[in-house]
Amino acid sequence: MADGTIQLAPFQAPPSGATEPLDAYALRADFPILQTMTRHGRQLVYLDSAATSQKPLAVIAAMDRYYREYNANVHRGIYEIGERATAAYEVARASIARLINAPDPHEVVYVRNATEAINLVAYSWGRRNIGRGDAIVLTEMEHHANLVPWQILVQEKDGDLEFIPITDEGVLRLDVYEVLLRLRPKLVAFTQVSNTLGTITQAREIIDMAHAAGALVLVDGAQAVPHLPVDVQALGADFYVFSGHKMLGPTGSGALWARRELLEEMPPFMAGGEMIREVHLRRSEWNRIPWKFEAGTPDISAAIGLGVAADYLGALGMDRVRAHELDLTTYALEALRREIPQLALYGPPADVRGGVIPFNVPGVHPHDVATVLDRSGIAIRAGHHCTMPLHERLDLAATARASFSVYSTREDVDALVAGLRDVIRIFGVPADA
Amino acid sequence: MDDLYRDYILEHYRRPHNFGVIESPTASYEGSNPLCGDRITMMLEIHDGVVADVGFTGRGCAVSQASASLLTDEIRGKPVADLQKLVADDVLELLGIEISPARLKCALLSLDTLEHALAEQLSGSTAAAGPANATASADA
What we know:
The complex is a heterodimer. In chain A, strand 5 (187-191), helix 7 and strand 6 form a beta-alpha-beta unit. By secondary structure, chain A is of the alpha/beta class. In chain A, 38% of the residues lie in helices and 14% in strands. By secondary structure, chain B is α+β, with helices and mostly antiparallel strands. Chain B has a single domain (7-122), classed as Sufe protein. Chain: A, CATH 3.90.1010. Chain B has five helices and three strands. Chain B is globular. The A-B interface holds A 364-368, 371-372, 375, 382-384, 397-398, 422, 426-428 and B 1-2, 4-5, 10, 14, 35-38, 59-63, 100, 103, 106.
């Protein structure tokens, strides 16, 4: 697998009882980009994995190999490389299904990213099932991808949007949610892990309550799949979306998982070739799922890369990934509080938080913080992180954000602390700010 | 250490020149970069086609605020005709540091706001707020 060969053999689960912690230092060798020097002559300290994750050699090599050795269109070729491309494309689908414990790979639809997946559901399921006066329940901290498509839908259908509020720490208020459910919404859509605050939401509870109230549930797993063990069956979700590029896969890859009955009932999203079984001049018959939702030639190399990324994470063991990031986040929060007491830190405690740390240096705009850190080779994100309503709720113009992945280490955190000390010094932030 | 944050830039950020409200300005505009939260309100008092007084208020990153401070110093006492000839490079020269493409909008917010203020004044409409990248009125 490390050399990018496509595994057609059954997946090798990590040895049971693999309890040794993840060795991030050893893993870093798999990620060539982490060895690069930035233009200021410093080694890259990448703390923006929530924006996009770096890719292991196995993923890069697999995609390169597809183009070098068996590039061909899928589902068509009656020749060797066509068959090989098709096999790789569909084997990758099975790998993805396995990572999220989907019961059947036919329930996994390839999309370009989580945003596209949500738009697909809004378009295909939403237009048929949301009518005048129907409510959709979201949360105050959704990424724009899980907000704007629903805004457009309810605008068109004259429906309503309601929002589960958060506490100031970023925890969802389930007491208010219970009241919102009395509106008998058709759909509840929420994030499993907040990309800005890092909050790991009470997903199972939210889903159970939604179903009891007669609503379907869409879970935005973009920040969950890379960082937690995800089991769509155990969760009980109806729709689950995530992006490949956030989980060590290439950009342009992603998946929508949905229950078979839903996918079979839903009309197509994009139309054209591949998603049909038969085409006549005035009518066509749709293909079976999942291909009904995969029109046109797909991003084959991206799908293959995503499959390898899924296998890579599966081999690491998502329990160990979570343990690693919990340890790192705990370390980071403690170090930041101790070394930079002036820092404003947002979000919940480490044990209910994914590896995401938003913060502000008093009196210094996040852009300036990010620029100073960039001089030391440190990459963080500054802005609103596609959660403008959340920033409004917290009365913040913008935040800086550091985020972790499997290759992040305590040294990365130490570098961040040192960089923030520079910010404090350059901007003369007082000790009691 | 950091050329972007040279002492004088930080000085203009911490103690901006011409910071404050002008009562009954001749021209005024509130510009902002909504994506990052920088905002600048530029106020001008114009007598006989010359900038008699100028002030700004705002909040945002060091680059945006320092740029406004430097720009207001530059235009004080100048004829309005000169102001209309200002281009992005003039502002960048005032800042005197390398601005990366990602920070360009921060650096140019002050100029954008100034241009809107002048355009509104010429078209005779009252001061209005709006995002910095909105197109200027047709009569400008």
